[in-house]
Amino acid sequence: MNAPIEGFSKLSKEEKIHWIAHNFTEQPKKTEQLLKRYWNIDGEVQKIHDEFIENTLSNYYLPFAIAPNFLINGAFYALPMVIEESSVVAAASKAAKFWLSRGGFKAEVLSTEKVGQVHFVFKGDTSKLFHFFTDIQETLHRSVEPITRNMEKRGGGLKKIELRDKTGDIEQYFQLHCTFETLDAMGANFINSCLEQLASTLKESANAYFGFNETEKSIEVVMSILSNYVPNCLVKAEVSCPVEMLNEDGMPPEEFATKMIQAVQIAKVDPHRAVTHNKGVMNGIDAVVLATGNDFRAVEAGIHAYAAKGGSYSSLTHASIKEGIFHFWIEVPLALGTVGGLTSLHPLVKLALEILQHPRAKQLMQITAVAGLAQNFAALRSLVTTGIQKGHMKMHLLNILNQIGANDMEKKELIQFFKERTVSNSTVKEALENLRS
Ligand code: MEV
Known about the structure:
Elements: H1 13-24, H2 28-37, H3 43-52, E1 64-72, E2 75-82, H4 88-100, E3 106-109, E4 114-121, H5 126-143, H6 145-153, E5 157-165, E6 173-181, H7 188-207, H8 214-217, E7 220-227, E8 234-242, H9 253-269, H10 271-291, H11 296-307, E9 317-322, E10 325-333, H12 347-355, H13 361-384, H14 388-403, H15 408-417, H16 425-436
Antiparallel strand pairs: 1-2, 3-8, 4-6, 4-7, 5-6, 8-10, 9-10
């Protein structure tokens, strides 16, 4: 029981399932059945999923949904969203509808620069290193040409290499800080391949450099890797309308606008609130990022670092009233791709991109930023008016009903019953008991 295993990855899928079921679960037969129930009946589709990662046993489903009616830069979009949280898609759709009659969303890509670094140790005279770097700039660029050629033909590639002296932070530590344009690709593999080539050219060139002594010749590369912090791969999305058009939710428009601005101000100054505020933004961003097969961990890490760029974690969204116009906007770094990676492999990702009318990476950046802004608007709108639980628990009702084993008829009756009542675990349980008795 629970002993280590040699060569697990070499077992067949059936053998892996058998091993895990019999060694780690209480009801092995049930475990086996459950894992197999989630296999795709289409063997080809299943094979694609099996091969994404190592040791695949089954699939882990998340809902794939659509939030319709997004007017973005004058064009209509239905946003594919992959997320498990009950109220998110409903909130996005509500925000889209709200802004549909108020001019829709505007979005603009501000920059598209990606970053990668070669981190290395140099034990010697720093001024000689800078000299050496100037001498080998061309060699460095030339060494990556076989990798960058195709990207360059389309206008992308390695744009700049800087030598950065980081010895103020760590003794003898330097970087090649490189910037890239990767067009419609997220570009992780492209960037990492370039960086590894730059690292080896750096080492070889130092070794052969006439101006270095023996110690200086042996540069030690620590690692070469892209950075998911992309503050110059930035997109802005915004909405605006005259304050008097914010006439919703039974609250006077001026009061609503003021409260929205106060809510954003609080998230700007208080990290406890900022984290939750931005979590709401990420409900929208992650859902679109996942649906379109992009790397949500990279996006999350980069966005949160950006939210802390002023030295304290702060709101990703902004709000103001100027000359009677309410403005609400977001600026976020988003390194997204619409080619490469999962985009041509995962059938639902392909579909999501088709639903979005085959966007270029820049358009996907705009759409995704809009999803984040819409989600934040919807959350703040509820928070400053009715409170979040009313809508949230309404959407959560079905989850509770499923948890307590309500059948279809009972679900129908109770959804009707709770239209005008407060949803909570205990009220739903009680209502089901009453219905049954
Ligand atoms: C819940 O998923 C997200 C919210 O907490 C966001 C917020 O508080 O702004 C509602």
